[in-house]
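Continuing the batch. This is chain 6 of the set; chains 1 through 5 are on the previous pages. Same settings as before, nothing changed between runs. Recording input and output for traceability.
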Amino acid sequence: MPKDTKRLLSNYSDVSQELIKATIASSATRKKFIADYIIQLNPKVIGIYRLVMKFGADNFRDSSILGIIEMLSFSDNKFRIVIYEPNLT
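Output for chain 6:
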């Protein structure tokens, strides 16, 4: 999970963490690939279902989908993003 790998890096900054760094970089690359793919489809509306990372979680601060939404929001394409999160009131 992104927050876990980032915490490992900060807690063990004096130890070589090449594998952890590669995991973080890979996650960022994957999010960019997904955002670019969606943009390439040129949709008018993008639907996002659920913001949480895993079942039963009520915290979505570090959810990967937030990074994808951010990339989509800052693209030059004009589309609407609709988010449905049933746990939010």
